[in-house]
Amino acid sequence: MDKVIYTILMLCSIVPTALPMVHGDGPSTKKNWFKKLPHKNQKATHLHFYLHDIVSGPNPTNIPIAMSNSTAQSPTYFGLIAAIDDPLTLGPSPDSGIVGRAQGLFGSTSLEEIAFHMTFDIVFTNGKYNGSTLTVVGRNPFLREYRELSIVGGSGVFRLARGTAILNTVTYNSTSGDAVVEYNVMVLH
Ligand SMILES: *[C@@H]1O[C@H](CO)[C@@H](O)[C@H](O)[C@H]1NC(C)=O
Ligand SMILES: *[C@@H]1O[C@H](CO)[C@@H](O)[C@H](O)[C@H]1NC(C)=O
Ligand SMILES: *[C@@H]1O[C@H](CO)[C@@H](O)[C@H](O)[C@H]1NC(C)=O
């Protein structure tokens, strides 16, 4: 399974990577890494996975934290704040192999359409990037077919990362609120 994930995650990497795992390094190793940084080639990596946002049932991965008195009357849930810990998988099926998790917060911040301001980390828990993270921030107008969020940083293999994530909803059950969202992440690091 590890090998499959490795292959798929690396599929579109432009420059072959020779970096050892760096997450959990101590300060001296990090200093050394930083000193060599100006002489290193920048890598461009394409990551592809699916996020499972589960609102319904006994084990939701998306839970409301707080809302204003007026949120319940708002057609756009304006003022709702929620936490997510959504599993990320290789394919659209929930049992297609775990890549990692999307952990963070979002707030409903538009009066005109359902749009969330999101701030979360993609935490890799398997394969080549296990232990590394990418930090994602941006506006997510959830009902549109495509959305674009910014990759503003990262850790481990993805230190100093920047890039973009294109989101595309694969399935959305408007009764339960559950959704599967395809992620194409292009990252320089
Ligand atoms: C919100 O609703 C509660 C309960 O009805 C009320 O006590 C409180 O004053 C309301 N807050 C605002 C800001 O309207
Ligand atoms: C990922 O890394 C953690 C912490 O180093 C380790 O405990 C775990 O076994 C690793 N998982 C996989 C699937 O390699
Ligand atoms: C959508 O969610 C409802 C309520 O949980 C469920 O009854 C229904 O089967 C779901 N539809 C699909 C296509 O999964």
Automatic annotation (TrEMBL):
GO cellular component: apoplast
Keyword Secreted: yes
Coiled-coil stretches noted in the UniProt entry, renumbered to this chain: none
Main location: secreted
Cellular localization per UniProt: Secreted, Extracellular space, Apoplast
Signal sequence interval, chain numbering: 1-20
InterPro entries attached to this UniProt entry: Allene_oxi_cyc_Dirigent, Dirigent
GO biological process entries: phenylpropanoid biosynthetic process
Role noted for this protein: Dirigent proteins impart stereoselectivity on the phenoxy radical-coupling reaction, yielding optically active lignans from two molecules of coniferyl alcohol in the biosynthesis of lignans, flavonolignans, and alkaloids and thus plays a central role in plant secondary metabolism.
Family, similarity comment: Belongs to the plant dirigent protein family.
Name the UniProt record assigns to this protein: Dirigent protein
